[in-house]
User: Which sequence fits this backbone?
């Protein structure tokens, strides 16, 4: 009997739910390889967990990361940290970290192709760039997964983004995904698997692939996913997994064919991620802060391109440039290569690896009337501080060029 | 029950801004619902009122604080054209009833709404109209019927799915 054609997402969910095949729309209960929560979402997850049971399904597969407000900027934050630390100690969890953004740490230490990973953070779609099914959930779902090692899913329909061509100078993965979200809309991929494929993806670095998958949620997607290839395996080193590939005649809800060779640098204007324009639309608009970091664009290649633009110069006097490498590994590499020294000499403030300003809790909060250009993934009203502050999303290159200019600048003029 | 009308793409930073969610205190979360976007909401909302919205309600962060805040504020149900998926799961998991209804444009802010939680019929008493909702898939309805995921896992578990 011939089996039906399946997407990579369907195959991973079939494997994890011990079925020969599953189809979009099926409800499945899948085994999860890892369950993650961070300091902001863990407290509610722990409450849900203890309402169900008193012992995690596997102490080596439940991961807690402090990244949303670490080190604690308030007494309330420290109190929540204390609660999560007690859980880590009581459950004897081996995976507890305070030295990076949760998604980056999962990518560096845990994810393998074919895994099912759930995290109490919406950007858990990032990790799918390594060929795994990874998705964000709320705290109660995560509490349930900590207790059972399982999670229920409705198998999603898939969207295929077939990306071809070579980006022009000054155009990066961030510009590509912003342009896609501008076209598809903030709910254009609602409940769907977002599968990225094509020559552009094949040639893109693992870091760039992570940027693409990171923002699947910004169009409503359930997961972002890219088939693992040789580049993925080299990145993973000793980690191996199970490589799944979409069948040629697998069913997609929609297919988008996009030539990235036509793209200019993109920005998302306030206050929705699908409000996307070429950078020229706002070139010259004064900024107060520039932020380089996060699970979207806080990796070494992002800090490298920013340094290339900024090295030997001074940022504009009216601008704070805040840099937060996404993990300690990235921090050390950027130190060793001299990037952080160059950035600090130019006037940047380097913060510890964390979510920092991205959620407006500390390390760079905005006041009324201010504008920040940021390499992060959300520009919602009030996200970085006062609701009357504006956030413009852009690539690390555009962030760096704008920090120098003191206003939104086209990175092509600085490369 | 008063209808509190909202538009499309109401995100979790609008419902519960990140700067206010460093707590698990449900009462406090109820007080900060829509604190900056619609400051009068938490002050004037009455037990049993409903939120009526457009597409993609609850998009953005996975923070469960958002549905918790809405429930704690006294809201008995959210009716929207569509919901962002994490918010949707979160609401079901914590026992906040959601209804998918394509006709929410026909309800205005301040209308008096009556919901039959058994049939899902939504009666707009101000306009004298009845709107239909899309039923939940059976699996999700079961979680709702048990009162949320915690009680579902305690009573049923995944073994019999």
Assistant:
């Amino acid at each position: 009997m011939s089996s039906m054609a399946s997407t990579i997402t369907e195959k991973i969910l079939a494997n994890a739910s011990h079925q020969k095949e599953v189809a979009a729309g099926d409800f499945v209960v899948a085994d999860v390889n890892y369950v993650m929560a961070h300091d902001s979402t863990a407290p509610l997850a722990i409450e849900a967990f203890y309402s169900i049971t008193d012992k995690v399904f596997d102490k080596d597969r439940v991961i807690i990361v402090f990244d949303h407000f670490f080190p604690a900027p308030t007494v309330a934050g420290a109190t929540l940290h204390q609660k999560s630390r007690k859980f880590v100690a009581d459950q004897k969890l081996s995976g507890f970290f305070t030295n990076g953004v949760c998604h980056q740490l999962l990518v560096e230490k845990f994810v393998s192709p074919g895994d099912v990973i759930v995290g109490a953070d919406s950007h858990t779609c990032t990790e799918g760039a390594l060929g795994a099914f990874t998705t964000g959930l709320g705290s109660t779902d995560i509490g349930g997964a900590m207790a059972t090692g399982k999670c229920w899913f409705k198998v999603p329909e898939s969207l295929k983004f077939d990306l071809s061509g070579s980006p022009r100078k000054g155009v990066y993965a961030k510009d590509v995904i912003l342009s896609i979200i501008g076209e598809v809309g903030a709910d254009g991929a609602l409940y769907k698997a977002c599968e990225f494929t094509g020559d552009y993806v094949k040639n893109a670095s693992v870091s760039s692939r992570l940027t693409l998958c990171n923002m699947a949620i910004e169009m409503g997607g359930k997961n972002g996913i890219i088939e693992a290839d040789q580049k993925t395996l080299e990145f993973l080193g000793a980690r191996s997994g199970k490589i799944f590939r979409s069948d040629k005649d697998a069913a997609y809800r929609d297919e988008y064919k996009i030539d990235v060779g036509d793209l200019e640098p993109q920005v998302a204007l306030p206050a929705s991620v699908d409000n996307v324009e070429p950078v020229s639309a706002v070139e010259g608009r004064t900024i107060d802060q520039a932020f380089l970091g996060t699970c979207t664009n806080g990796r070494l290649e992002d800090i490298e391109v920013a340094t290339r633009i900024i090295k030997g110069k001074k940022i504009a006097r009216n601008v704070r440039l805040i840099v937060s490498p996404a993990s300690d590994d990235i921090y050390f590499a950027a130190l060793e290569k001299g990037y952080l020294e160059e950035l600090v000499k130019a006037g940047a403030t380097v913060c510890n690896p964390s979510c920092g300003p991205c959620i407006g809790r500390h390390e760079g909060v905005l006041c009324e009337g201010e504008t920040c250009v940021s390499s992060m993934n959300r520009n919602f009203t009030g996200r970085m501080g006062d609701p009357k502050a504006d956030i413009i999303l852009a690539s690390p290159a555009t962030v760096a060029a704008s920090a120098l200019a003191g206003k939104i600048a086209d990175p092509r003029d600085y490369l | 029950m008063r209808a509190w009308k909202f538009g499309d793409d109401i995100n979790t930073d609008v419902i519960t801004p990140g700067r206010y969610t460093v707590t698990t205190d449900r009462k406090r979360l109820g007080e900060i619902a829509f604190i900056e976007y619609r400051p009068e909401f938490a002050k004037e909302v009455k037990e049993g009122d409903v939120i009526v919205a457009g597409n993609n309600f609850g998009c953005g962060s996975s923070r469960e604080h958002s549905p918790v805040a809405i429930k704690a504020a006294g809201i008995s149900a959210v009716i929207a054209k569509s919901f962002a998926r994490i918010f949707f799961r979160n609401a079901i998991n914590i026992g906040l009833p959601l209804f998918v209804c394509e006709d929410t444009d026909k309800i205005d802010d301040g209308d008096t709404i009556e919901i039959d939680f058994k049939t899902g019929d939504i009666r707009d008493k101000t306009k004298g109209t009845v709107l239909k909702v899309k039923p939940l898939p059976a699996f999700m309805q079961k979680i709702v019927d048990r009162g949320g995921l915690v009680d579902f896992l305690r009573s049923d578990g995944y073994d019999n799915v």
The radius of gyration of chain B is 15 Å.
